[in-house]
Amino acid sequence: MNKAFTKEDEGPQADRLDDLPQSPHPNYVTPAGLVRLQQQLRDRHADLSALPRDSLAAKVPRAMAERDIRFLEGRINRAIPVDPAAQDADAVAFGASVTVLDDEDRQTEWRIVGEDEADPAQHRIAPFSPLAQALMGARVGDVVDWRKPGGVAELKIVAIRYST
Fold first, then answer.
1. Quick one: what percent of the chain has pLDDT higher than 90?
2. What residue spans carry the Basic and acidic residues bias annotation (predicted)?
């Protein structure tokens, strides 16, 4: 049969979209991060429930919601909750808010959070990011080297704080 008359030309079949990739890193989460993931899952279930079952127009949105639900269920199932308040207050670890001083005497605070919570623009970084890796294990007064694409920045640890 001529390829022009096959179903392949009707556009993508949206019964089931490919799964979104899961991160290869351990899924450490703060208590707030786990609550957010669970809320996102409830929201996507609600979105899915609101879509008509027999509508051709809802086929792609249904497939997207189902894909997102599978992704979020995977993130939640792989979650490793870590209570920041239970960490050693003297050293930088997951959940820490770390105040650093750079070589131009600028003070910045970074918080090490789960991958799903990370937002570098808001100074929330994932534990496997280069900055978090440089900070991990450091104590107040230590100087760490943050390897960035533009070179190495020295950061002095000024304060370490843990909160929930």
1. 80
2. 1-19
Report the pLDDT value the prediction gives residue 2, as an integer from 0 to 100.
53
> For the chain, which residues make up each domain, given as ranges?
25-81, 84-162
* 14: three-class secondary structure by DSSP: coil
* Residue 27 · residue 114 · CB < 8 Å: yes
> What are the Cα distances from residue 157, in Å, to 1, 83, 87, 110, 141?
70, 22, 17, 11, 5
Cα angle value 126/137/123 (rounded, 5°): 30
Do 157 and 138 form a contact (C-beta atoms < 8 A)?
A: yes
* CA-based nearest residue to 19, from 71, 73, 74, 79: 71
**CATH value of 84-162 in 2.60.40.1180, 2.60.40.1120, 3.10.50.30, 3.30.750.24:** 3.10.50.30
Interval 7-56: pLDDT, tens: 444 445 557 899 999 999 999 999 999 999 999 999 999 999 999 988 88
> What mean pLDDT is predicted for residues 88-101?
96
